[in-house]
Specification:
- The protein is of the alpha/beta class and 257 residues long.
- It has a single domain, classed as 3-Layer(aba) Sandwich (Rossmann fold), CATH 3.40.50.720.
- The chain has eight helices and nine strands.
- A seven-stranded parallel beta sheet has the order 3-2-1-4-5-6-9, with helices on both faces. It has a two-stranded parallel sheet with strand order 7-8.
- Helix 5 (158-178) links the parallel strand 5 (143-148) and strand 6.
- Helix 1 packs across helix 8 (228-235), helix 3 runs parallel beside helix 4 and helix 4 runs parallel beside helix 5.
- The longest helix is centred in the middle third of the chain and has 28 residues, at 112-139.
- Bound molecules: nicotinamide-adenine-dinucleotide.
- Nicotinamide-adenine-dinucleotide binds next to helix 1, helix 4, strand 7 and helix 6.
Length: 257
């Protein structure tokens, strides 16, 4: 196989949760441009169809599907739509999450409703989606699940960080559980992404952002496009031997030895 062909996704079918969000739209387009048929999912069906239509207008293959990832039946319906439309599922990107919506309240004072809500979306949601796609992936000889976590998982990051660290743990569990069926499960941990939700969560003038930025040895912050290399590696034949890993894409913000 030609080296660059190892990154191609022709004949693959990918689902991107949170596909209407800032990073999700970039991921959906990247997967489609690499050759995959993409199921763009969002909490609003019309918005998801709009994002998918923009890809179709550019000659790419995509549909938009409404989903609430906290609802197991809704994720099963999402998987069924993907199978109906494109014949099966090869790649799932668990990208949907609550982040900028989380009130900036000290963890010790956070109302328990928010604790439950964040864990339901950021952790249980990814588990629901993984459960919903596994039969189709296994039936096609394997697949890839990519969980989007965060550099916030590896430092005091409140309920958001706790949920993302839980998803790192879920990544390892799913990798062990699904590896024998040919399904690789990995995670991408972005650093300071230069987009609206990132800036809302940690505003440009916030002292914590300044402290983080000064401690990052490499590129301090970057657009979502800078996550695409890791996404394609983990989604494509090029990443076939990578399983159970969390790859930081953050300029060296987090370093694990
Ligand atoms: N932006 C950053 O700086 C940054 C940094 C590190 C990690 N991340 C992670 O990247 C991912 C994407 O973030 P983003 O910046 O695009 O934020 P975003 O808010 O634009 O995207 C999140 C998406 O998740 C969807 N979502 C929320 N609850 C849902 C539910 N119950 N069912 C289905 N979808 C639901 C939202 O509709 C939204 O489109 C998230 O997992 C986030 O934690 C972002």
């Amino acid at each position: 196989m030609h080296t660059l062909d190892r990154f191609r996704l022709d004949d693959k079918v990918a689902i991107v949760t949170g596909g209407c969000g800032a990073i999700g739209q970039v991921f959906a387009r990247a997967l489609a441009e690499a050759g995959a048929a993409v199921v763009v999912t969002g909490t609003n069906g019309d918005t998801a169809e709009g994002v998918a239509d923009a890809l179709v207008k550019d000659g790419l293959r995509a549909i938009g599907v409404q989903v609430d990832i906290t609802d197991r039946e809704s994720t099963e319906a999402m998987a069924a739509r993907a199978v109906d439309a494109f014949g099966g599922i090869d790649i799932l990107v668990n990208n949907a999450a609550l982040m900028s919506e989380i009130p900036r309240i000290d963890l010790l004072d956070l109302p328990s409703e928010w604790f439950d809500k964040v864990m339901r979306v950021n952790v249980l949601g990814a588990v629901h989606c993984s459960a919903a796609v596994k039969a189709s992936m296994a039936g096609r000889g394997g697949g890839r699940i990519i969980n989007v976590v965060s550099a916030g998982a590896f430092q005091p990051g409140g309920i958001y960080g706790a949920s993302k660290l839980a998803l790192v743990s879920v990544t390892a569990t799913l990798a062990q559980r699904l590896g024998p069926q040919g399904i690789n499960v990995n995670a991408i941990a972005p650093g300071l992404v230069d987009n609206e939700p990132g800036m809302k969560s940690l505003p440009a003038d916030h002292p914590v952002r300044a402290a983080f930025v000064s401690a990052i040895p490499g590129k301090k912050q970057a657009p979502a496009d800078d996550l695409v290399g890791a996404l394609l590696l983990l989604s494509s034949p090029a990443g076939s031997w990578i399983n159970g890993q969390t790859i930081s894409v953050d300029g060296g913000f987090v370093m694990r030895l």
